[in-house]
Amino acid sequence: MNIVHFATNDFGGAGLATVKMHNALIKINVNSYLIVKNKKSENQYILEFDKKFFLKKIHRRMKRFFNISKPYKTNKYYFPLSNNQSINNLKTSKLLKLLPYEPDILIFHWISGFINYKTIFEIQTATKAKIFIMMQDNEPLTGGCHYPWECKKYQNLCTNCPALKINKKLAEINFVSKKKYINLFKPVLLSGSKQDIEKAGKSALYKNQHIERFNAIVDKEVFFYKEKKGFKYPLKILFAAVNINEKRKGFQYLKDALDILSKKYNYNDIEVSIASKTESEIKLSFPTKMLGFLPNDKALAMAISNSDCFVNCSIEDSGPYILYLALMSGRAIVSFDVGCARNVIEHKVNGYIAKNEDPVDLARGMEFILKNHSKLPFMNEKSRRKAVENHSEEIATKQLIKIFNKYIGR
Q1: Sorting pLDDT into bands at 50, 70 and 90, what band is 78?
Q2: Taking burial as the number of CB atoms within 10 A of a residue's CB, which of 83, 104, 186, 255 is the most buried?
Q3: Is the pLDDT of residue 62 over 80?
Q4: Which of these, 235, 225, 240, 267, lies nearest to 366 by C-alpha position?
Q5: Are residues 379 and 403 in the same domain?
Q6: Which residues, listed in sequence order, are joined to residue 34 by a DSSP beta bridge?
């Protein structure tokens, strides 16, 4: 089986998730290459489409310095695309020359600013390979935004887009273009989130296409299980977000939930560790450790293993992927009912699923862990077992290959 992945980057959250899948497939002797727009790694099986990344960085900084604005003003919370999806922004022939072999399967991951659906159609026409679209956020379902929030226009047609402050027709143009090419190359949509599968089934773009759920892949050796036989105060909570000021990460809800708990528990009963690029000092109702940005899996695995409980307060997310890492590390998890929370948490068994955007219920979830601290070893073991049985490389890659074989007739 010959597989080629496409992604904008081999770094960052979405990029690293793509690299993990790519590497896991190579481990089971599947031919796999990844083509990216921007490359930082030294991986020989990752090919860079445009090697002028350094020059592009200088160009972007010059544009910011001289205040050269984008042609479309956007609402940043939707993380919308700013380009016209109906127009090619690269030469397909140049991309085809990078293909290392005749592919059976082409997987398009997070491709914003790199490849659009017109280009995908041209690649598919040239190669005759089966197309899979990896849903790492909600952009595949929409006319451009990655996080639609309460907007449901993707279920029909993205008209009068709330993400765009001017030229609101752009989202509709993108949506119509996507629909045209999706109906031509007929992709299979892949998602690891039960919530996103539900959204996709209601979307105008994918409700008539094949949709498959796959299990996220996690290296069980890197994200190891550190057994904790007894509980000692304080309850060690870990929260992680690259930017805690980003609205969708919901940090204010965690802050409010801890304020609620501070009225019932002593100051030293809970300790909060925050992994983030945010450098400003944060004052919470309990002792707080700022871990800074954790640059690699080893540092992240260590931070998770040193905690008792991982708390996710994202309010708009397809993941976050770190929930799978916490699960593999064998930790209790408290999370809003968002993204992949239902995939990893068995409510009141290995964690707690709180009502979305409800700090009272989030506090209730952390209190559930605190009150049941004697059961933490059981919760931890349950998390680890669930992760190994569903998300370890050997199990999850076999499930993925089974999905691929279903569509290429093997």
Answers
A1: confident
A2: 104
A3: no
A4: 235
A5: no
A6: 5, 46
Q: Is residue 220 helix, strand or coil?
A: coil
- Given 3-state DSSP classes, what are the helix, strand and coil percentages for the chain, each rounded to the nearest 5? 40, 15, 40
Give the pLDDT of residue 410. 66
Both structure tokens of 280: 């400003």
At 93 the pLDDT is 93
Q: 197 and 173 share a domain?
A: yes
Element (H, E) at 305: helix 297-305
> CB of 184 within 8 A of CB of 157?
no
Q: How distant is the alpha carbon of residue 373 from its chain centre?
A: 30
One domain, residues 20 and 76: yes
Confidence at residue 68, expressed as pLDDT on a 0 to 100 scale:
40
Pair 171, 80: CB distance under 8 Å: yes
More confident residue, 278 or 206: 206
Tokens describing residue 285: 């109702």
For 17, the enclosing helix (H) or strand (E) is helix 12-27
Model pTM? 0.91
Separation CA 152–CA 154 (nearest Å): 5
And the tokens for 372? 């049941």
Same domain, 318 and 374: yes
- Domain residue limits at 244: 235-391
Indicate whether 196 and 254 sit together in one domain. Answer: no
Q: Which DSSP letter does residue 146 get?
A: S
- Cis preceding-peptide flag for 162 (omega within 30 of 0): no
156 lies in the same domain as 55: yes
CA proximity to 353, closest of 396, 314, 392, 307: 314
Provide the percentage of residues in the chain whose pLDDT is more than 90: 81
Do the domain assignments include residue 178?
Answer: yes
Residues 6+ apart with CB under 8 A from 339: 193, 195, 196, 314, 317, 318, 319, 320, 323
Residue 57 lies in a domain: yes
How many domains is the chain partitioned into structurally?
2
The burial class, CB within 10 Å (0-12 / 13-18 / 19+), for 281 is exposed
